[in-house]
Inverse folding.
């Protein structure tokens, strides 16, 4: 763990991000075969923290933040070979430290639902999503 280096890398190369997504369980739920979409995801995120073992990207936190009220942590990915070493928890901590006034918010991936309470995060039962604006009722 002492070899892992954490830093803000808002210009993360696309190929490294995709490679990490594929080496983590998050690659199953991200459009890793759509370079244009992944590029836009990186371009529009304004807070990307990385974990590197030497030069190898082994973890990433990709977030959007206003740095005052809320930070939405959209992607938390750790290489499966590096999981259970505290890297995800450290990335969350460092994301929060980068925007200390903002509440950190995330939606858990199905395989990670049990992880977040274990590390001390609070579950919120009032979350809603909308994928298509046509789904909104007219009333």
């Amino acid at each position: 763990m002492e070899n892992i280096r954490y830093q803000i890398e808002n210009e993360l190369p696309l190929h490294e991000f995709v490679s990490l997504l594929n080496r983590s369980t998050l690659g199953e739920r991200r459009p890793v075969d759509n370079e244009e979409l992944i590029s836009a995801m990186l371009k529009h995120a304004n807070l990307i923290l990385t974990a590197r073992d030497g030069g190898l990207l082994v973890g990433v936190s990709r977030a959007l933040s206003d740095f005052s009220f809320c930070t939405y942590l959209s992607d938390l990915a750790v290489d499966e070979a590096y999981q259970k070493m505290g890297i995800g928890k450290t990335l969350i901590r460092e994301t929060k430290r980068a925007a200390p006034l903002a509440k950190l918010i995330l939606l858990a991936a199905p395989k990670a639902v049990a992880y977040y309470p274990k590390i001390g995060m609070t579950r919120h039962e009032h979350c809603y999503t909308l994928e298509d604006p046509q789904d909104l009722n007219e009333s």
